Amino acid sequence: MVKNTVKGTLLLVDDDRFVLNSMADWLRSCQYEVDTAVSISEARILLKAKQYDIAIVDIQLGDDGDGVLLLREISHSDKENMPLVILVTGYGTVESAISAIRAGAFDFLTKPLIDAELEMAIERALHQRDTVSENKHLKRQLERRYGLENIVGNDHRMQRIYDVIESVAATRATILITGESGTGKSVIARAIHQKSDRRNKPFIEVASGALPENLLESELFGHIVGSFTGAVGNKVGKFKAADGGTIFLDEIGTASQGLQVKLLRVLQELAFEMVGSSETIHVDTRVILATNENLEKAVAEGRFRQDLYYRINVINIEIPPLRERIADIPLLTQHFFENICREAHKNMIGIDPQVILALQNYSWPGNVRQLQNVIERAVLLGKHDMIVLDDLSADITGSLSGGLPPIGLTEMANKSLKETLTNPERQIILEVLEMHHWNRNATAEALGINRTTLYKKMKKLGLDEQKALH
Q1: Is residue 274 in some structural domain?
Q2: For residues 186, 187, 190 and 196, what is the CA-based torsion angle, rounded to 10 degrees?
Q3: For residues 406 and 418, what is the distance between their CA atoms, to the nearest angstrom?
Q4: Residue 308 and residue 160 share a domain
Q5: Are residues 88 and 106 in the same domain?
Q6: What pTM, to 2 d.p., does this model score?
Q7: CATH code of 377's domain
Q8: Which 3 state secondary structure label does DSSP give 368?
Q9: Nearest partner of 162 among 452, 449, 455, 450, judged by Cα
Q10: Residues 298 and 263 in one domain
Q11: CATH code of 93's domain
Q12: What share of the chain is helix, strand, coil (3-state, %, to 5)?
């Protein structure tokens, strides 16, 4: 016999036991799981002990309170996933219905209840609950994928980037992100958006170098019908689409002189006109820009407007290339490995230390994006239960025999991943100590760790003994 599927869990609250039991029996026959209460005090006990999808509550109850009171308690509860409330009354008016909805009720029904009407209200409420639950799930996925925790790295320069993101995310300041191709500029931009109070508004990304000038202007600012050949209808531009949220303009160094003038005005006034229109549109859009070009050089050569450069270079986040932070390679590798295994539903136990050695010895012209692609390929096409050297391309594994490896890596070839991290960590701390003339307070601040942690690391890595030589 096939077991009936429960459509949802309901709590019925009514002080008329006959009506209560009759409604409960009918709803159970419709494949709902139903509990009943004849008073607010009974309902409170059940709500505390069990999670319900919907509470169907009569307004006129006993001496311990009415249905509106219970509605308010449910609406203001900090318990996650409280039920949606459908209020029921025998004395319905338009005013009472409006008052109930304003108080937080999902729906308002009048007695005598019609079966079809009640079931329709329940189905709407369940659909609403499923939609809210799905949106919460998608939001958590979005935060996990694009949040600050998705930016991996212990390098002291990356720690400074984290601090800048925390400091500027809540502001409207224009931000310029610079760095080589593949360093993760779009990831930084999304993290800033996710940390801001604009996180629930659009994040619009535009690759400025991917479109010709005439199309890019229309893409950014929109156009009206007939403004140029092929403009068969009005089009909303990206700046307008991002109103209230964030627009990320990548490859801004490729923008034409004409577009640079218009961008300068938008940044200064947050106003523009659609192509072919004289009507001025005002927006509240946060602007983040990125480039892998040297804009100072472009200004000197006359390819980039100096006034625009000064306007966008208010806060500059410079992402170091991967080859300059080899201590982060094992962390990034593990991060990508775990994410890709989870998404591809592959059960792999780990990464051979020899692989980490090869990855740290490679120059990474494509930076973090290239590393992610390498790990994805190794996971998807690998034939073993862990990533091994055979899963890497010859240009990466060849780096092990193509010259001297970075200082301290050779002797780590047969060590664990944790041990593999030790020498680069020592080099980074030593470098920052020397940069700050062995001032521990300044060094700890630059590394983004507290002084006690720094002292422990120095002692563990033998740097306290080296301090005595200075």
Answers
A1: yes
A2: -130
A3: 18
A4: yes
A5: yes
A6: 0.59
A7: 1.10.8.60
A8: helix
A9: 449
A10: yes
A11: 3.40.50.2300
A12: 55, 15, 35
Using the 3D structure, point to which of 140, 169, 194 is the last residue of a domain.
Answer: 140
- Which of 157, 156, 159, 148 lies closest to 192, judged by CA? 148
> How far, in Å, CA of 311 to CA of 391, rounded?
47
Same domain? For 450 and 346 the reply is: yes
Residue 304 and residue 329 in one domain:
no
Cα distances (Å, whole numbers) of residue 126 to 57, 254, 371, 398: 16, 50, 44, 59
1 in a structural domain: no
SS3 (DSSP) at 110? strand
Domain CATH number, residue 294: 3.40.50.300
Same domain as 71, residue 168:
no
- pLDDT tens per residue across all 470 residues of the chain: 445 678 899 999 998 888 899 999 999 999 999 999 998 899 999 998 899 999 999 888 877 778 888 888 888 776 667 889 998 887 766 676 677 777 788 888 888 888 888 889 999 888 888 877 766 655 555 555 555 556 777 888 888 898 899 899 989 999 999 999 999 999 899 999 988 999 889 999 998 776 777 788 888 998 898 888 777 788 899 999 999 999 999 999 988 888 899 999 999 999 999 988 999 999 999 999 999 999 999 999 999 999 999 999 989 999 999 999 988 999 899 989 998 998 899 999 999 989 998 999 899 999 999 999 999 999 999 989 999 999 999 889 886 654 434 434 444 444 454 555 556 677 778 877 877 778 888 787 777 677 777 877 888 888 876 655 55
What are the b/e assignments for 401-438, b being 16+ CB within 10 Å?
A: eeeebeeebeebeeeebeebbbbbebbbbbebbeebee
Q: Specify the amino acid at residue 193.
A: H
State whether 206 and 74 are in the same domain. Answer: no
For residue 3, is it within any domain? no
C-alpha–C-alpha distance, residues 151 and 143, integer Å: 12
Which residues lie below 8 Å from residue 227, measured CB to CB, with a gap of 6+? 218, 274, 275, 276, 277
- Judge contact between 71 and 27, C-beta under 8 A: no
- The set of residues, in sequence order, having a beta carbon less than 8 Å from that of 307 and lying 6+ positions away, is 264
Same domain, 445 and 338: yes
H or E segment and range at residue 381: helix 367-381
Angle between helices 94-103 and 67-75 (to 10 degrees): 30
Domain that holds residue 162: 147-320
A 10 A CB-CB count for 327 gives: 21
Structural domain contains residue 412? yes
Give CA–CA dist 396/364, Å, rounded.
9
Number of structural domains (the chain) is 3
Domain boundary among 119, 140, 161: 140
Instruction: Specify the length of the chain in residues.
Output: 470
